[in-house]
Amino acid sequence: MVERIRLFSQHVFFIVFMYGGRFGIHLGSALPCFSCPFVQGCAGHCYLMALQRTHVGFQTAFEVFFSSAFVHVLWPFALFLILFLPLSKLWCAWLCPFCLFQDWITLIRKRLHIREFSMSRQVRNRLKPVKYILLALLILIPLAIANLGLHPDWGLPFCQICPARPILPLFTGNVSNFHIDMTNSVTIGFTATAMILTGVFLAGIFFKERFFCVFCLLALMHLFKKLSPFRFEKNVHACTGCGNCEQMCPVDIADVHLEKGKNHMPGAVDVLTQDCLGCMNCVESCPVDNALVFKWFDFKIFSSSRQYMTRKWSSK
Amino acid sequence: MTPVSSRLDRLKTRTKNLVQTELETQTSLIRNHPDYSDSLDPFIKILQQTFFIEQFIEQSSKDIVFTPCIQAPLELFHAAGLQPFKLACGSFAVQNMAPLHLPALTCPMIRSISGLLEMNQTEGIPLVIPTTCDWVVKFSELAGLYEKTDIHFMELPHLREEERSAKRWHNEIQLFKTWLEKRTGQKIYSKNLLRSVKLYSRAFELHDRLIRLRRKQIVSGLQYALIMNAMPYQDIEIWMAAVETFVIGLQDTGIRKIPVFLSGSPIVFPNYKMLSLIENAGMAVTADDICTMERTLQGTVAYEDASEFALLKALAQRYHTACSCPTFADNHRRINAMVHTLKQYEIKGVIFHVLKGCHPYDMEASILEMRLKDQGIRFLKIETDYVKEDEQNIVTRLEAFNRTLRSIEQ
User: Fold this and answer.
1) Which tens digits make up the pLDDT trace of B53-100?
2) How far apart are the C-alpha atoms of A281 and A302, rounded to whole Å?
3) B298: distance to nearest CA of chain A, Å?
4) Which ipTM did the prediction report?
């Protein structure tokens, strides 16, 4: 049931984000999901682009940071927070168009009965810093362009290598982002890297569900989770340790199962982690009543139920 | 001088007669119980047949494979077209045939299993042994089965939450599948496995309905034990049909006793001593975590996709991580599950049944007692075996426990 509602939501928002602009919808340039600005006629832009741009992002002279003009940088960020906070991780698995694209690829793999590639807990932990490295580059490169004279072709460094840039425009019939720009060594480097990464990610997504999400920079919005009314809690003392949550998680989060050493704590503990996509697969597959709960303030959005889980799997 | 074989044959005949008498006595006790209904007949019938394995094989449409524990996935047996035969025995009479060299403090169930295998012609029937407790690991050697049959060991990692354990057990499940394929000469395709997984998921849904009825005391502990004990010997679809018939015919008597949670060593037909005594003492077993009762079907298998790898991985996880066998080292969550059930269904007392010689449960009893008492839950440990001589003593303790629980309720 929840899975179907989520799929419906993903498809509706895919249409809205990808084609909404053609019908006059404009949701701004601070969206906390991969609504790619390179899609013609999209309804809004991913905040990562604004973050790298001049005037509204980090491609700004140092003196601006200490002047009233800094409000232009802060405003998109404030807008990003206003959009992110009420829905938090629901932006990922319920709204993000690139997430839905990944789900389609996974669906093809599943239909072909091809096994998924396993990624150990150790490998996942080692990959976690990649997001922070990308964020640092995303900030430092635009700063260097604005302040240290780095060539402007280094602009929008993340967008230039993001696999969503060539892939998502395909749904509007635009294949122009699949190319190597031979203008200079920088453009050759960026476009070649983008093509290689696109190939790697397409293969990765096929063999590993939500492979891109492992590296997604927007997952770092998790840093503001305490400001959000969206909560994911686990009643530790109800957990039987069956491991279904980890097994069914598209990004193999172990912290819901193992609670990051919080099992000595009484009552409910926060298990919303950086990589969580809010897909609620874990809650759907948990066989213990109220062991896992998604909440909005104190209202239960969805909680685990033995009966729900049993019915779901016996009617599959 | 009488030849050894002739003496052995006489012992076999005498034991078979004793077992027959024991079964008749127990069956008539069960049938005369106020909870009994005719819809339980198919379960009793199959349980009686399990003592005469040659006849059981004759009547079975599938080849059988012995397995003493619940960690060998039932879905794989089904997908391979084989009938699992759970090596769990509650007969005291059959112990006459147990090898004399078994240690004095042998687990009564292992003694009975050894006797059962000796009493019947079981040579050549394959055996799958998940390495759970020491008795299960060693009994095949003690019973001299190495020379008689094909034994496949599934090496069970005793850490539930470690990734390395999950990988090892997944590998064991794959090896088990290969072994089954070799036995049958037929490949287990993922579509067959998926069909079996779905079938057992439906069985679990039915089981869940049964559990809910049990919590409300509409199904008694004895009825439930019969149904669940019979499950690992029957074709799952036949079992489901019999359970459906039983559920349709159920009537709520309206009688409500003090609910208790039963934990500990396996309770196997026809040894329903503990269940009867608890009920006679005025309590009702409305929940348990016994591997021959509620843990026979522990949960639905949740799988990522229908590929063979994913299905085997899901099965491996379901039969390892989701299992709360006391042989696991990191088993603290077993108590969580118990406390959660106790609170959810307002059960105030736990009766812990230990078969003399069943070391893992004996060791876990004290840990459990401490944790449960911290939560204000009353705990009673009863150590017994298959004999009837200690019944009066147990009843006295159970009645006192019942009085304690009643005083808490008031």
Assistant:
1) 988 998 888 999 999 999 999 999 999 999 999 999 999 999 988 888
2) 11
3) 10
4) 0.85
Evaluate whether B74 touches B199 at the Cβ level (below 8 Å): no
> Smallest CA–CA separation between B234 and chain A, in Å?
20
CA distances from A255 to A2, A6, A125 (A): 22, 23, 11
Mutate to test the interface with B, among A242, A259, A263, A292 (most CBs of B within 10 A): A242
Give me B152's structure tokens.
């496949």
Contacts of A289 in chain B (CB under 8 A): 340, 344
Report how many domains make up chain B: 1
Residues whose CB falls within 8 Å of the CB of residue B79, separated by 6 or more in sequence, listed in order: B188, B192, B193, B195, B196
Distance CA B107, CA B252 (A): 38
Chain A CB contacts of B321 under 8 Å are 241-243
B302·A244 Cβ contact <8 A: yes
Number of Cβ atoms within 10 Å of the Cβ of B165:
19
Find the domain containing B295 and state its range. Answer: 4-409
B237: contact with A, CB 8 A cutoff: no
Residues of A in contact with B339 (CB under 8 A): 237
The answer to whether the Cβ–Cβ distance between B307 and A258 falls below 8 Å is: no
> How far is residue A307's CA from residue A87's CA, in Å, rounded to a whole number?
27
Q: Do A242 and B317 touch (CB under 8 A)?
A: yes
Structure confidence at residue B249 (pLDDT): 86
Domain ranges of chain A: 2-219, 229-314
Are B177 and B188 spatial neighbours (Cβ–Cβ below 8 Å)?
yes
Residue B155: other Cβ atoms inside 10 A: 14
According to DSSP, the β-strands at A292-296 and A268-270 are: unpaired
Q: Under CATH, what is the fold of the domain A229-314?
A: Alpha-Beta Plaits (3.30.70)
Q: Parallel, antiparallel, or unpaired for β A292-296 and A230-235?
A: antiparallel
